[in-house]
Backbone:
């Protein structure tokens, strides 16, 4: 059996300290998971159930460059910690969820905020705002076997040397285990799934030439230039 055209390559991420790569299955992203960010987006951060959207696996990008996308004039940064799953299943309990996590990384959930705003107003899906080409710049992953499971620590984004986003992982409204529990009640999670765990306050528009440096304590630094 052949294919009618060459199949696309398996999307994968480097893993720090090894030549082996992490093969990516799906990319889940949680919305409004830091209270200050929920407020800046005009929402009450009371603990309503979490909600998720997806990016496409091939939106991931480790090149260090973010090409300003077409069809938007308001592209926002959102710095996030990434949890990468090595095991999955359905109806995973929070107390067992960390056994599914291979490791962690740092990503930007780049967002065409103008298109997302139109979609929100019209009650339409968010893909046009979220799931565009190269919309998820990402670092290599670090294995939890090396660093454990970060539940607190600084998360920040500098743009052109100025601190623009700042928070702490202990401010996550829904923790990583709780996100896995909730997601696995909706989807069958699989090895290779990534979860972008939410962004702290300070989202704003980027422009060509911006140098973004994303940081989560204990994880690789994310360096991305908007081109
Ligand atoms: Mn986000």
Residues:
């Amino acid at each position: 059996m052949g294919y009618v055209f060459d199949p696309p390559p398996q999307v994968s991420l480097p893993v720090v300290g090894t030549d082996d790569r992490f093969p990516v299955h799906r990319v889940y992203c949680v919305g409004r998971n830091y209270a200050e960010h929920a407020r800046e987006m005009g929402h009450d951060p009371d603990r309503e159930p979490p909600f998720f959207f997806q990016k496409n696996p091939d939106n991931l990008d480790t090149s260090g460059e973010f090409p300003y996308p077409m069809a938007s004039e308001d592209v926002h940064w959102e710095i996030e910690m990434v949890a990468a799953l090595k095991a999955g299943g359905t109806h995973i309990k929070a107390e067992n969820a960390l056994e599914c996590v291979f490791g962690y990384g740092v990503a930007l959930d780049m967002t065409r905020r103008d298109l997302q705003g139109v979609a929100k107003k019209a009650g339409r899906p968010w893909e046009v705002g979220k799931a565009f080409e190269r919309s998820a710049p990402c670092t290599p992953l670090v294995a939890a076997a090396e660093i454990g499971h970060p539940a607190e620590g600084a998360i920040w984004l500098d743009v052109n040397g100025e601190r623009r986003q700042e928070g702490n992982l202990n401010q996550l409204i829904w923790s990583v285990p709780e996100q896995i529990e909730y997601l696995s009640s909706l989807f069958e999670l699989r090895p290779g799934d990534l979860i972008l765990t939410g962004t702290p306050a300070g989202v704003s528009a980027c422009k060509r030439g911006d140098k973004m440096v994303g940081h989560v304590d204990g994880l690789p630094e994310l360096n991305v230039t908007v081109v």
